[in-house]
Specification:
Blueprint lengths: L4 E2 L1 H8 L3 H10 L8 E3 L2 E5 H14 L2 E5 L8 H14 L5 E5 L5 H6 L2 H9 L4 H9 L9 H4 L14 E4 L5 H7 L16 H6 L8 E5 L6 H8 L3 E6 L3 H4 L2 H15 L4 E7 L7 H11 L25 H5 L10 H5 L3 H14 L6
Parallel strand pairs: 4-7, 4-8, 5-6, 5-7, 8-9
Antiparallel strand pairs: 1-3, 2-3
Helix pairs in contact: 1-2, 4-17, 7-9
The structure holds adenosine-5'-diphosphate (ADP) and magnesium ion (MG).
Length: about 350
Amino acid sequence: MQQDLVGISEIAEMANVTRQAVTNWRQRYDDFPKPAQVLQNGPVWNREIVEHWLKQKEGRTPHVISFINLKGGVAKTTTTVAVAELLAKEHRKHVLVIDLDPQTNATINLIKEEQWKELDEAGRTLAQLFEDKVNFQLPAKFNVEEAIVRQVSTIDGGIARLDLLPSSIKLIEIQERLPFVAIQGNYDKNPQDILKVALQPVIDRYDFVLIDCPPSLGVVTKNGLKISTGYIIPTIPDIVSTWGIFQIVDNVDRFATDLGRPIRPMGIVATKVQGTMELHSRVMRDLEAGRLFNGKTTELKQPPLFKSFIKQNVDTARGADAEANLRTFKAKYGPNCDAFRGLTQEIMERCNVPKR
Ligand SMILES: Nc1ncnc2c1ncn2[C@@H]1O[C@H](COP(=O)(O)OP(=O)(O)O)[C@@H](O)[C@H]1O
Ligand SMILES: [Mg+2]
């Protein structure tokens, strides 16, 4: 029987990516199928084997993106939530938001406070996951399936395909004790792996996992980075908010080197931009030109600035609380709606996700 053979161009077409992407996969993935034959004009593969590999790849590699800045109040949460909502609603992706910040802002943005209180009391938040490891004498209570809240957001009264792993203010106290769980001998693995292990049964369901990190590079953030394929830095274009960006890039780069795999600095998003402020305009120009690390003795490059930026706007500020019950993107984000749409598109492009 004649085998159904395909070349690189056909594989690219099957996967809806460029030929270059397929060439990259061949280099990057050890398990990329071996060619069935090498013909004069290049290698060819058995179609069925390639199809199987592609299917597996789609399932097993969600894009996991951490949103990080060492500064609070720079719209990390707002950006994480808006991008998640747009990916799920307008691009029909399966998205999980992980709220790693004890401030619990992403949680309170996506579900009502009353619902959160019930979940918190029942131990159905990430605080419980970490508490289980700290209080090892007690029986573990956290169950990832139960903790995932499905179809969250006020938009449309809930967005299909948008899930949330909620946080809790209890995490403030618990995170202090986390670095010591391994030393105390009550956890046989690295405390940076707690989230990774817990997510294993569910993570492959998602196309995107977006992590709202606390404003630090402590153990909790490291739990997020451990599963991240990339990270995004939201920042107000001023001196104090951009000040820590080098620390982040440097720290994550070292962390990734130790892991032996890349965690891609996907870019910087300018937020709460006030066009009339000379300082904002100047810092924006520096970020655009990639000049932020100038004067530092480093090989590291400033992550590129996303073209889309978010303006300071009262409507966007109002959208942060699920109690406000804003049911459309327009109502929730006001004039920043299209900027968030543009940003989401750019993020997908940087993830190499084909347009629908
Ligand atoms: N574009 C914006 N214009 C005005 N206020 C904003 C904007 N984006 C966010 N905010 C408000 O700024 C505050 C901080 O935003 P948030 O997303 O919680 O930042 P972070 O997570 O970095 O602490 C919140 O009150 C939020 O509603
Ligand atoms: Mg926040």
